[in-house]
Amino acid sequence: MKKLLLVGILVATSTITHAQLFNINPQESATSQTVNAAASADVSAFVQYFADTQDLQGNFTQTVHGQRGLEQSQGKMWISKPGKFYWDYQGANAQKIISNGSKVWQYDIDLEQISVRGRDELVGDVAMDILSGTREIQELFAINAVAQPQLPVALQALAKDGQSYRLTPLSEQDGYDTVWIVMKNNQLAALAVDTGRGQQTVIEFSQLQRNVGIAAGQFEFTPPAGVDVIGE
């Protein structure tokens, strides 16, 4: 299974607001302004959440919706700014994908093989762009607050009672076209990536801990003895 990693402000308008653009009733126009103001504040809080996030750790469930149907995997993750991450895919097709900010190890446990690359060789790395990057999220994406029905179908159930956002890259990306994020109770709940090629990857987070501190050694990796290492 392919392991796809995850992360100016444009304020979205709801279906109601679009309708009100053509309504000259002064009272309804005021309502439209209220909706826009609320969406603007909503996006500002979203941006601040990621600006204030220095590290995250917790569990995840990743579901890939593609031509082969559904493929699901689970695991644990650790992320720390700037540029460090550890995604531990457990169970079938177990893998570990680790970066200390300059080097990336991808360890396929079943194949007993490790590929090593420089961090700057990765493209389409959503997790790095959004969660553990060195740039602010609004410098990378146009951000729109969206209603639940505007989300991809695969994400709508997860978005119930949450706040949802569409992130469009400000520069062309090789790995994805659009990112969708759901927040619940001021915490990251789910992230979906649309590759633009008929495939969506949805990552649901649970038991997250934020800004509790993660030791730097968590993001270092020593290949086990007897495992083939490529690229180092």
From TrEMBL:
It is found in: Periplasm. GO terms for biological process: lipoprotein localization to outer membrane; lipoprotein transport. It comes from the Bacteria. Keywords: Chaperone, Lipoprotein, Periplasm, Protein transport, Signal, Transport. Pfam families: LolA. Residues 1-19 form the signal peptide. InterPro entries: LolA/LolB/LppX, OM_lipoprot_carrier_LolA-like, OM_lipoprot_carrier_LolA_Pbac. GO terms for cellular component: periplasmic space. Its main location: periplasm. CDD domains: LolA. Participates in the translocation of lipoproteins from the inner membrane to the outer membrane. Only forms a complex with a lipoprotein if the residue after the N-terminal Cys is not an aspartate (The Asp acts as a targeting signal to indicate that the lipoprotein should stay in the inner membrane). Monomer. Belongs to the LolA family. This is Outer-membrane lipoprotein carrier protein. It comes from Suttonella indologenes.
